[in-house]
Write a structure and sequence with these properties.
Blueprint lengths: L1 H23 L4 E5 L2 E5 L3 E3 L3 E3 L4 H34 L7 H25 L7 E5 L1 H23 L3
Antiparallel strand pairs: 1-2, 1-5, 2-3, 3-4
Helix pairs in contact: 1-2, 1-4, 2-3, 3-4
């Protein structure tokens, strides 16, 4: 049981770190242009220098929603980690990890909303570029989506142990 808890704790910390990286770094979409490689994130557009990301006014709200939900997913993931540590030492067997699992599943839902909106609204819509493809931040966000779901379900299952 202790090994299982330690493993879940390590995966939870890895998920938090990957969420930070995927939200902060600006490599959600990578493409080529006549002036070199262009990477686009949630905040900046980087070529040789990074500038504020400019989107159409119709997509601005969608981008703000994606930014907000990615930040919320970080907050909920960190909150679930803190709640896990508190519940581990304060609650008795059979009552542990309900709250941790619930908070982690809320984190999972935030990631799902953010990445789905980004996929629907911003994939393949860049102009004057060739060969656009997803960057590592986009992939990390989907990995965090999977990990947070698995961790949330495991926390709910572990309440019985």
């Amino acid at each position: 049981m202790l090994v299982l808890l330690a493993g879940i704790f390590v995966v939870h910390i890895a998920t938090v770190i990957m969420l930070f990286v995927s939200t902060i770094a600006n490599v959600w979409v990578v493409s080529s242009s006549s002036s070199g490689t262009i990477s686009t994130g949630l905040w900046l557009l980087c070529n040789k220098t990074c500038n504020q990301l400019v989107v159409k006014s119709s997509d601005e709200t969608s981008l703000k929603v994606v930014q907000a939900f990615m930040i919320l997913s970080i907050i909920f993931s960190v909150m679930a980690l803190i709640v896990f540590i508190i519940q581990l030492f304060t609650l008795e067997k059979g009552k542990r990890f309900y709250m941790t699992g619930a908070v982690m599943l809320v984190c999972w839902m935030c990631i799902l909303i953010a990445v789905s909106i980004y996929t629907a609204r911003f994939t393949g819509k860049t102009q004057y570029v060739t060969n656009p493809h997803h960057g590592y931040c986009f992939i990390l966000a989907w990995i965090c989506f999977c990990f947070s779901f698995i961790i949330g379900i495991l926390y709910l299952v572990l309440r019985k142990k």
